[in-house]
Structures are given as structure tokens and as C-alpha cells.
User: Which sequence fits this backbone?
């Protein structure tokens, strides 16, 4: 069996009898410097998000509460990854078209990114995305 | 009225009709480089956590789900800060004794830190903490 194409990272749990704790260290479990952290929550029922790729930004996504599905497409492979555990982290590398679906009502999707927000880094049109793939 | 002694930071919300998004950028809303991110969840009923200060580590805490209370004590001032909104962030600066109480069952406490975990950076004894305060 080949390795998964969009491999999930199992983050370390430091829990004890008091409760659970999961950690992501920059340049370690999280494979880049963390310049920005954001969390998506209160997503309306039936809403999907994402539908873009990044030219350069690297990200690491974790559902710290609830669950959602990440549909990934790098032009060669597609996969749907279910994030449903606070220690299950999915890297979203540059030039991967990604969509988030099936948010549970309690979903909090935490994302660590290696760059500040920059609209110029987004590719929001799927045909433009596929054109970039064939020209790079 | 004087300024609060442990001021809370209101993080920017980037929500729209799809749902909510809150962001913390390093060296901006989060006033330091983010070397480590961790999240505390599944805290057993009646359990309190923390009960330490750090020599050097700076942290920023947010309840991205649910709520808890942070009791802060820097040797001069004490305060109890309720974290109950995903855009309400509390800086925990070095040499502040802090305790977390009243975790709601759905609480996910997200913490950004400017340093890797280092047990030597912890002061876990309150009398030792007060001694450090008088000798520094």
C-alpha cells in the first residue's frame, strides 16, 4: 500500500487525569514558522468554505472541536480527509486546492499559517488553478 | 477609572454570512513570535489547572469554545478574567501566577506561546514565586 498522498500528522497529546492537552511546536510538529493563527467557527448549516489554493502559504489545520471534511486536490491526486480529533492535523501545502465541507455545529477549525494574510497569495478560480499547474 | 491591570485583547473577527473567523497574527494582535500553540480540552468537571508562573515565556490565551476563568496575580494586583468568547484574548506575561478555573464542559482553551516547552521556565510553588518577586 502506498503512503497517503496528503498525510495527516498525529500531534502529541500531553493529557493526564485532569484532562487533555495537544501541542504543535513551530518547526517541529508544525513544519514551519507560525506567523498567523486563525479559527473558523459558527459555520452555518450546509455551508462549505475554502475553494482556493495558495501560491506560497503553508498551513496546518486541526478541528479542536467537532469535525469537518477537507477535500484536497493538487492536480494529480484528490482526497477527502476527515478531521475529527484535536490531535489530527492536516498540512495544506501551497498549490493544493482545498475545500471544507460537512462542518459539525460545534466545529472549531484551527489553522496555523506561515505567512500574514495576503489576498494576492490566493487562487480563487479553479480553472486559473489548473492553468497555473500546467505552466509552473 | 484606571485601565485594567491585565488587559484583554479583542482579536479581529473576519466573519461573514458563512460563519465566523478570528485571527491572531504574530507580532501584531499577538504581541510576540509564536513558537508553540497548544489547546486544553476535555477538562474533568471541577478540575482547575495552571497554578504556576513562567520566568520568561509569554503567552496569549483564548477560549475558542466554551469558557473558563483565569485568576491572575503578579504580586501587586490580582484579577479574575472570564474568557467566554473566541475573540477575547488574554496575555499571560512572565512572572504572573495564573490559575484556570470553572472550565465549561465544551471549553477549548487555545494558548499561543513565544517559546518551546521548558520545565525549567516554570515556577510551580507559590511561595517560591513570591520570593522571586522580592529578589528580582
Assistant:
Amino acid at each position: 500500500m502506498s503512503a497517503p498522498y496528503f498525510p495527516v500528522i498525529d500531534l502529541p497529546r500531553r493529557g493526564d487525569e485532569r484532562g487533555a492537552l495537544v501541542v504543535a511546536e513551530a518547526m517541529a510538529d508544525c513544519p514551519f514558522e507560525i506567523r498567523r493563527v486563525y479559527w473558523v467557527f459558527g459555520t452555518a448549516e450546509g455551508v462549505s468554505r475554502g475553494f482556493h489554493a495558495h501560491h506560497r502559504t503553508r498551513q496546518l489545520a486541526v478541528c479542536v472541536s467537532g469535525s469537518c471534511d477537507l477535500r484536497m486536490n493538487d492536480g494529480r491526486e484528490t482526497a477527502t480527509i476527515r478531521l475529527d480529533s484535536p490531535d489530527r492535523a492536516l498540512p495544506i501545502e501551497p498549490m493544493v486546492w482545498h475545500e471544507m465541507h460537512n462542518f459539525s455545529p460545534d466545529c472549531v477549525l484551527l489553522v496555523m499559517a506561515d505567512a500574514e494574510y495576503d489576498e494576492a497569495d490566493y487562487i480563487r478560480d479553479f480553472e486559473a488553478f489548473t492553468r497555473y499547474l500546467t505552466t509552473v
